[in-house]
Amino acid sequence: MKELLKKLSEACGISGFETEIREIIKDELKDNVDDMETDVMGNLITTHKGKEGKPSVMLASHMDEIGLMVSYIDDDGYLRFVKIGGINDQMLLNQKVYVQSKNGEVPGIIGSKPPHITSAEEAKKIIPYTDMFIDIGAKNKEQAEELVTVGDPIVFHTEFEECLNDLVMGKALDNRVGCTVMTEVMKRLDENCEATVYGVATVQEEVGLKGAKTSSFKLNPDMAIALDVTIAGDHPGVKPENAPVVAGEGPAIILADASGRGLITNPMMKEKVLQAAEDAGINYQLEVSDGGTTDGAYIHLTREGIATITISSGARYIHTPISVVNIKDVEDTVNLIVEFLNSL
After folding, report:
1. Among this protein's residues, is 205 annotated catalytic?
2. CA distance 106 to 97
3. What's the Cα-to-Cα distance from 328 to each of 54, 71, 125, 167, 229, rounded to whole Å?
4. What's the CA gap between 10 and 26, in Å, rounded?
5. Residue of 205, 206, 249, 331 with catalytic role
6. Which of 67, 266, 274, 316 is most buried (most C-beta within 10 Å)?
7. Could you give the C-alpha distances from 104 to 110, 134, 152, 251, in angstroms and in order?
8. What SS3 class is residue 130?
9. pTM for the complete prediction?
10. Are 213 and 300 in contact (CB under 8 A)?
């Protein structure tokens, strides 16, 4: 499982450009599911066929990561960009990036003035991304345009590494963790699971939960589980009442997100998931959050409504170029969902 997470973390796929992630998951599941298709939006839909008359369940995990996109190339060959997904400007400067162009990966850096020529007043200010640029080493616009073009996606470059105490760190763990969980669950389903299970790798969650909206309309399952990460606040600078989830303390079962503007968990789903956790002896955490939501926010409103819950792993430093999760939380999430599905 750790190797799969590493492969997915180091692969590139900002919103709207998830092909590389989709191909990895397709390869992992080609011999483990009864059906597999890619829809018009780019969602990958895999199916474990259950028994007739038994419920159907959608497992939704978004493939896309936050990133940037080339919006302009100036006369000196520097690239301007827009942000794709929620990114704070202060974490952009001096990041190493790769432009995903038709010519392959083009390395660059988001440049900045060195401290020697930065005034004290300038040093205190957060530079807006609209004033930033990417240096790919081009000497002019013509040379830059031989390598990249407006509309090319840009990704941060971070290697996946193991840390102490079962922690791992890497790029895009939001939501390659969810993709890993979905993929591993689909691998483990057998005749003990009588429900029909749709393992769906969705697109464009970071920019509007788009893939979840179209795929859930197509499938119209009886139940759904959104698989994602949530904020682990077990580090300096965060109060536990604002982010109570702790990495390593088990899956986070989300009871409400975005103060109810997103998903308020279906009571039946809550009861069944908690019972599955108790039956399997899996530690879990409960979360009610104020900000942020998941694919579940759109899924539960599809057609006549779908009974939905979100199950997440706690991740430190999400929506930055590198975040941290506890691999045991990921494993326990897989075990919890398999137990839940087999109980239906």
Report:
1. yes
2. 8
3. 31, 40, 40, 8, 14
4. 17
5. 205
6. 67
7. 19, 17, 11, 38
8. helix
9. 0.95
10. no
